[in-house]
Design a protein that fits this description.
Blueprint: H1 7-24, H2 27-30, H3 40-49, E1 56-63, H4 66-73, H5 75-93, E2 97-102, E3 105-111, H6 115-128, E4 133-135, E5 138-141, E6 144-151, H7 158-174, E7 180-182, H8 187-204, E8 210-219, E9 225-236, E10 240-242, H9 244-253, H10 257-277, E11 284-288, H11 291-294, H12 299-310, E12 317-321, E13 326-327, H13 331-342, E14 346-352, H14 359-364, E15 369-372, H15 374-379, H16 389-399, E16 403-407, H17 412-420, E17 425-427, E18 435-436, H18 437-455
Parallel strand pairs: 6-7, 9-11, 11-12, 12-14, 14-15, 15-16, 16-17
Antiparallel strand pairs: 1-3, 1-6, 2-3, 4-5, 5-13, 8-9, 8-17, 8-18, 9-10
The structure holds ligand C2E and calcium ion (2 copies).
Length: 463
């Protein structure tokens, strides 16, 4: 049946429908159209109505990096993914209630007898999302971040509990995603801190509060410096020194990372180009690039423009990316990296071994350098490092013709293992912390000597 209603009558018709729906529990008034799950309005009603005698858990669920997937794969794809995710979510929530609150945010309300039951439920939900989604011709893997709060422990009303579940969700996201967090009073502080950082971050670039530090990268075989990694520093008049781990995530969420990242790239290219003119013509510069920058339409052109403007030979620029989302074809990202590679720019896979990194990513993306995550380098200090995965990663990298760099090297013992496994390059406090520009310049001349002194080797003698 099709009912035609004139525009001015439409809103009163919808209101009427709502009223009828509220009385009769009409399906469309309580359910989200895309996924068929209960909607936010219904959640709020249910929370008001819930039997307060029961122990209740409010769980908020968010698909990691959904916005990026939506931007890179298109909205139709995004909707299909949400529908499929909603279906999977509903299947796992029974006998509780499953809701879609909007965007990629879902919620579940469960009554329970003991907290182990909830932990088991969260684990099984995360497990169920490990299975790849097949949307059209593409396969996609997504993970979930979840925040949980309990009634009556975490709030006097269920609405308050919902607010606290949201804080826990933020906590799960900011501590690396793909995990769940249970509400804790301390999270109130974290929320306040985020707001504070965000407020001052908006003006930081304009007020010239950023600086770029440079951490040397050394070749193990010769002990010579091969280049630097550029690392941003923020000295805020209001907040003092703010570490990148505290503000980069917020810069990504607010898209401020786009102008900030561009500023770092320009500054770093200028610096290395000047060093080339001063005779250090072999030095390379590595610059971190956020996935948010990479997905911008004009990203490739921005990089090429900066290279042209600063005069740096593209062969000396390396962009460090992390594998944050796994999309079967990697199409949108790969084609951009291919263009940059054609111009001579090198690509490094950062933090390899952490979170999402996978061999398929390495094979499908045009990577030159593999950076072994500090976590694995740390494992070299354990009792039986032979069993360490570092050896394996180095072998894989070498087989694929990649240059392998170990980061976060802090001790001589780690260095010795890396030499034994024939890792090509190292970076870490053992040789140098990230340095302000002037100190980085000074470091170049003494790098080789410092290397041999630290390793207790005769200067100039190849290892
Ligand atoms: P990352 O890219 O993995 O950078 C390495 C981090 O490890 C740096 O922290 C560096 O100072 C630290 N590090 C290096 N050697 C050692 C060591 O031997 N021991 C220990 N404990 N730490 C070591 P930093 O500078 O605080 O940066 C943290 C993260 O923030 C970076 O991790 C990167 O993901 C991000 N970041 C920094 N600068 C930028 C930037 O300009 N753009 C973007 N998008 N992200 C950036
Ligand atoms: Ca990096
Ligand atoms: Ca890294």
């Amino acid at each position: 049946m099709l009912i035609w209603i004139k525009g001015d009558k439409m809103s009163s018709f919808i209101n009427r429908l709502r009223q009828v729906g509220e009385k009769t529990g009409d399906y469309f008034c309580r359910h989200d159209k895309l996924t068929g799950l209960l909607d936010r309005v219904q959640l709020m009603k249910d929370l008001k109505r819930k039997n307060r005698g029961h122990h209740t858990a409010v769980i908020l669920v968010d698909i990691d990096h959904f916005r990026l997937i939506n931007d890179s794969m298109g909205h139709v794809f995004g909707d299909q993914l949400l529908r499929a995710a909603g279906h999977r979510f509903r299947g796992s929530v029974a006998p509780g209630r499953a809701y879609r609150l909007g965007g990629d945010e879902f919620a579940a309300v469960l009554t329970f007898n003991n907290t182990q039951q909830i932990a088991k439920y969260l684990d099984s939900l995360q497990e169920s999302f490990k299975k790849t989604f097949i949307i059209g011709n593409s396969k996609i893997h997504v993970s979930l971040s979840m925040g949980v709060a309990f009634y009556p422990e975490d709030g006097e009303t269920l609405e308050e509990v919902l607010k606290h579940a949201d804080m826990a969700l933020h906590d799960a996201k900011s501590s690396g995603r793909n995990r769940y967090a249970l509400y804790d009073r301390k999270m109130e502080e974290a929320v306040k801190d985020r707001r504070l950082v965000e407020r001052y971050l908006h003006q930081a670039l304009e007020n010239e509060e950023f600086e770029v530090y440079y951490q040397p990268q050394l070749m193990i075989e010769t002990g010579k410096i091969s280049g630097f990694e550029a690392l941003i520093r923020w000295n805020s008049p209001e907040l003092g020194f703010v570490s990148p781990n505290r503000f980069i995530g917020i810069a990504e969420e607010t898209q401020l990372i786009i102008p900030i990242g561009e500023w770092v790239l320009r500054k770093a290219c200028k610096f290395i180009h000047r060093l080339h003119r001063e005779g250090y013509s072999d030095l390379d510069i590595s610059v971190n690039v956020s996935i948010v920058q990479l997905l911008q339409e004009g990203f490739v052109q921005t990089v090429l423009d900066i290279l042209k403007e600063t005069g740096l030979d593209p062969h000396h620029l390396e962009l460090e990316i992390t594998e944050t989302i796994l999309i079967d074809s990697y199409e949108s990202i790969r084609s951009k990296l291919d263009v940059l590679r054609c111009h001579g720019v090198r690509i490094a896979m950062d933090d390899f071994g952490r979170g999402y990194s996978s061999l398929s990513g390495l094979k499908q993306l045009p990577i030159n350098t593999l950076k072994i995550d500090k976590l694995f380098v740390d494992s070299l200090l354990e009792a039986e490092p032979e069993s360490s995965i570092v050896d394996l990663i180095i072998q894989i990298g070498r087989k694929m013709g990649l240059s392998v760099l170990a980061e976060g090297v802090e001790t001589k013992r780690q260095m010795e293992y890396l030499m034994q496994y024939q890792c090509a390059k190292v970076q870490g406090y053992f040789f140098s912390k990230p340095l302000p520009q002037r100190e980085a310049e000074r470091f170049i001349a003494t790098a080789s000597m410092a290397f041999h002194a630290r390793m207790g080797l005769e200067t100039g003698k190849a290892v």
